[in-house]
Amino acid sequence: MKIRILGCGPSHGVPSLSRGFGECNPNEPKNIRSRTSALITTNSGENILIDTSPEVRLQLIQAQNKNIDAVIYTHSHYDHMGGANDLAGFLVDRKQKLPIYLTKNDYEEIKAHLHYLFRADSSPFEIHLIEPYQPFQIGKTIITPILQYHGLQKSMGYRIDDVAYSTDLCLMEPQGLELLKGIKTWILGVVSPTKPEILKGPQKHIYLDEALELISLIKPNSVFLTHMGQKMDYSRLSETLPENIRPCYDGLEIEI
Ligand SMILES: [Zn+2]
After folding, report:
1. Neighbours of ion ligand 1 (CB under 5 A)
2. What's the 96 CA to ligand 1 centre distance in angstroms?
3. Model confidence over 197-255: pLDDT tens digits?
4. What is the pLDDT of residues 95-124, one digit of tens each?
5. Peptide bond into 99 cis (omega under 30)
6. Strands (E), 12-124
7. Predicted model pTM
8. Secondary structure element (H or E) that encloses residue 4, with its range
9. Hey, which bits of 42-180 come out as E strands?
10. What is the CATH architecture assignment of 2-255?
11. Which of these, 9, 110, 125, 156, has the minimum number of CB atoms within 10 Å of its CB?
């Protein structure tokens, strides 16, 4: 299996319009982070895109891979679905519709934002509604969606063979944690090193200290941090984290 981290940035990217690079070294190219999405090439050869970030067009051009077999969505926040329109542009020469997998709630929300992409007579997408904890199949690959809490919203993490992809979460149910047992590689969304003393609104993401606790519970061989904000400097994290926990960067390819 190969995982290409297309983007590993937070909802407003790094640098962001409001905070620039924040505490990240602006001279380190690995601190330039587009919004979070990933491309998985499974052992049986399916190319599965996780989310269509607003930068998915450039991300896929850089990846030199337009052969997407399916998209699985983590949730309907703009930074995870905003590029769906550009993905549709990739599909004009495609004879079959592109299967997309998402919850009913996320489908309704994405459709409300991008209604013209979902007209019954012309939609480039074939909709597959998924349920938490109910495995589904793309080609020969079994994928298990894992319910996550993400502020007032819910999101889906995914387990694919020995790999899990979990971003935009602040909490998982015991059932979800149980499903992660035995994974070897974990792509985990961690927005910031520590929780601010005062949060604006409900907690949406886990912080590094909370992530380390989860990692010690699940015990994967290796962890790659994604969805990292302006306080997550690449070099500082690389130097201070244990060897088996690495920060991602845009374009990172992980061979498993
Ligand atoms: Zn989100």
Report:
1. 77, 168
2. 30
3. 888 888 899 999 999 999 999 999 999 999 999 999 999 999 999 999 999 999 999 99
4. 889 999 999 999 999 999 999 999 988 899
5. no
6. 37-41, 47-50, 70-72, 98-102
7. 0.96
8. strand 2-7
9. 47-50, 70-72, 98-102, 125-129, 136-138, 141-150, 153-160, 163-166, 171-172
10. 4-Layer Sandwich (3.60)
11. 125
